Known about the structure:
- Chain A is an alpha+beta fold.
- At the A-B interface, strand 14, strand 18 and strand 22 of A face strand 6 of B.
- Chain B: This is Cytosolic arginine sensor for mTORC1 subunit 1.
Amino acid sequence: MMSGSKPDILWSPHHVDRYVICDSELSLYRIGAVGSSETKAGTLPLSEETAATLLAINSDTPYMKCVAWYPKHEPECLLAVGQANGRVVLTSLGQSHNSKCKELVGKEFVPKHARQCNTLAWNPVDSNWLAAGLDKHRADFSVLIWDINSKFSPEASVPAEKIRLSSGDTDSGLVVTKPLYELGQNDACLSLCWLPRDHQKLLLAGMHRNLAIFDLRNTSQKTFVNTKAIQGVTVDPHFQDRVASFFEGQVAIWDLRKFEKPVFTLTEQPKPLTKVAWCPTRMGLLATLTRDSNIIRLYDMQHTPTPIGDETEPTIIERSVQPCSESIISSFAWHPSAQNRMVVVSPNRVMTDFTVFERISLAWSSTTSLMWACGRHLYECSEEANAADRDIATKMRQRAQSRYGHDTVQVWRNHVLAGGDDPQLKSLWYTLHFMKQYTEDTEQRQQGNKQSLIYSGIKNIVKSSSGTTEIRRCWTGSDKQTDVPRYHSEERTLALQLCGWISRGPDIDVEPFLKSLEQEGEWERAAAVALFNLDIRRAIQILNKGASAEKGDLNLNVVAMALSGYTDEKNSLWREMCSSLRLQLKKPYLCVMFAFLTSEPGAYDGVLYESSVAVRDRVAFACMFLSDTQLPRYIDKLTSEMKEAGNLEGILLTGLTKDGVDLMESYVDRTGDVQTASFCMLKGSPGEVVKDPRVQCWIENYRNLLDAWRFWHKRAEFDIHRSKLDPSSKPLAQVFVSCNFCGKSISYSCSAMPHQGRGFSQYGVSGSPTKSKVTSCPGCRKPLPRCALCLMNMGTPVSSCPGKSDEKVDLTRDKKLAQFNNWFTWCHNCRHGGHAGHMLSWFRDHSECPVSACTCKCMQLDTTGNLVPSDSV
Amino acid sequence: MRSAPLSSTESSWRAEAMDLHILDHRLRVTSISKTGLENYTHPLIKLIFLRNRTRCKFFSLTETPENYTVVLDEEGFKELQPSEHLQVEGSTWLPLNVISNGNASSSSQAVGVTKIAKSVIAPLAEQHVSVFMLSTYQTDFILVRETDLSVVIHTLQEEFNIYREVKGESVPVQGQNAQNGLRKNGREASHATVHPVLIPENQFCVMSLDPDTLPAIATTLIDVLFYSNNTPKEDTSQAQDLECIKFFSFSLIDGYISLVMDTEAQRQFPADLLFTSSSGELWRMVRIGGQPLGFDECGIVAQISQPLADSDISAYYISTFSFDHALVPEEDIVSVTEMLKDQRKEAAR
């Protein structure tokens, strides 16, 4: 509706590049790209990309109140103009040679009593029908439906001399005074629209503060609702039962199927609304404009199906856009086909082409992919990094699937389950493996006090060290005496064992360790370990072997040569060159070998602080060559370094103590790997360490993570694993099945409890209680409820399908009863239930309770009922 | 975030039914003497032309040879300073509006007072409820005293669905069973006086105007309203042989403008701005009352409307401070005149 001379906009229904601005006159514009050849000097820029060209102006129709564009292709550009005196005039723009148009242009439709024409609407199907809504008159109808093809026909009841039309009108046959239909007496019609669902129906607003639906086939009857919101009725083009109307600052949304009251009303605006329009290209998007405003408010009515409760209000997302920053908006119009595009016009006719940017909605999946929607596009973003760069969540998910953490026998194997590519995990699981191994050893030797010591880490082991002996040994295979002191004690041996240098048992030979390193191709490390055990020949041998091995590094031979030239001569050229050139060696183990050979006894910083060397090797080295005063200091320093860095290799030092939790905390902070943290710390049970709130937090988070991934079986496995290691975590029974008659629990654990004083014999039941029927309550012997589907008492095994009968034979009764299919299950809402297996199969095909006459939608009440685990047992 | 529904709602399928709306206006009926008009030009111009400056929603000004009758709501009444030139009827009046929930093809073409003569005017007259009629281009208002409202509701609830409009919402009025409403309104039933009538020669037209174009006719309107050079004749000299009488009515009610003027006045206005019926129908006036009628007498409207209804003749009816005025179609004036003469004769018998 136009008021005064404020310009309004109408898009051509069929030419996507044409629109009309109407204020005191009608101006037809064509919109095009700025740079296009069509643009001439007189174009008006609408945006950075588009400009409008004025095609035609029509000022034949003064006192315009409303305009409606003929909806059909032919004749194109035919406009109906409603005037202040109620006359409706057909006019056209830039169509001078269109013969079809010619007959109609200039035709006038005149109401019996003059008053303002408020609104016009073409019938979408019978496009020669034009509905006009007029102000009220005491003796006339306010809605007139004109047939634009009808010829002038003087009303029979009105004598010809009474019709005082301006001369000429009657002759030309261009004036029509007899409407096709007349509706609504005594009140103004402020707005109207045809219902797209049924083109014979018309929605009128304004009749005595009513919204009324008239059916032209029976105009004496109408459906109406009393409301203040009677302006600007408009049907949602995407949802033909949804209608918006407004009053002052408030918009009401109606559902024509439930017309008694608005479905909802939008937040009231302080200023009166001037236009409300559904977006033709986007479902459920309503744009509103208030007077003297420079923003357009958008309401996004999300259509979210809600399974429970019909009364829930739909979600509405409100936002506003400012198409032209400084100017007030007089009107706007959505483009009929371009997505979310509109043209806005200011009171002084400045036009702006504007596209509403679509809201982006984003959703993370519980795995690593991410999805977002913008307009009609849906984008999925999934992780495509190589194995090393993968997100920790992806890694944990994969590791959970490969049963990471669950190998409790070959504990070290867990690092292989984890993918075998993380040196820290490798070190951690070897440490835990050795700790478990030596704990078992000491248990066998019944030296109970050592067990806790082993899990408390090398830091605590070396602190308790006593009776250290110092030995100076010869280089193996040489009689040359070294001046390198080596320290021995029981604790240091244990530490070496935990470092993996020497294997279990009384033997303290490193040879097996060297062999295993050789097998894995860790030539430099093996050589270094051999050297630290004062066996230069073995080291050289290893290097040679390494050089000759497949894909071997020939440089190892050169190193071997250099090594063979070892001399303990302090001022020799060898020593001088080696100590300076070793720093250029890329391989850390080669570097530390020469560092060891060229350093003074007791001053091994070149080895001890070479961070590229594995912690376990440095610690083992320290245990061999550092004195009782040096060793704890070094270990302390290294421990705090490891804690700071969150390096899992440090677990070797801290063990599963509070220090270990601190270290793990910084590891989790760094990586987020609660999985490793949970599994690792559970090994510390039954120590205090598991009760640390941080540890509990990691465990709970890991469980939640498994649940989020729908790895319910994995989570159950984890819970079982956890309860084995930490019996205190075993959950107490929370649900009991109680007998309807005696109220006692019927679960087996309870029936197994001794009955106080009263045996079954008292009831005269012969036979042992264990043989008593499982279909009755062990307390009162009354029957258990029946399964709603098979009508057998609970406790009866599920009758199997004919095809599966052989399976039944195989199973013992106990085993069958323990099967999930035989479990009791019931709905918490309607209390009906039965065998879990029967219920599951029932609800696969039904939504309502199997008990007849019960309408409970049991399965829909269960939010997880329709989810499927994403892991398989 | 969302507020309550906008309306109290009721939806149903209904056959033809008549609704009576008690509108949300509280009105005062006043009269400004011809000589005192100059004291009131400022508030009147404000009420007529400056819609945004006043909260008055109901304003009607009718010029008769005797005086200016101003009917307006309490907001508008505040603008009028009391003075010796201003007479105010003591009661608060409420406008009623009859709405036929219309069958589109209503059998009777007659409208206005005629339509409601039998259903509203006659029953109220029987109950001795004094009514003040105000017809406009858009509708007919029946003004009743607020004190009579319970009697009105009681009398009309049989025939009508009664709604009371409160802040823009129509609230159904439940009929009270109070028997006291049936009493004759506390007033003695006086025998219906048959008043003399005057039928001047002027032809009248009833017209409307787009409020947006009101400024365009402002000067003409001011001229016609305030500077009509008819010097008021002495009241006593109002003779039966007077050919034309000065009568001009302007009302601005809920944003709708209605004008009643004779063809002479109409010629002063630009032709294309005023709305009227396409048939250009003209009306003749029947003025009721030889002496000022006052506000307490009942049955005056009924007296006129009843015979019109019997003959199915449309009519406008405008009450003023002193007299009542009925407008009937030009072509029916002869039969109306006959009818009124018969009525007078009968009364004289």
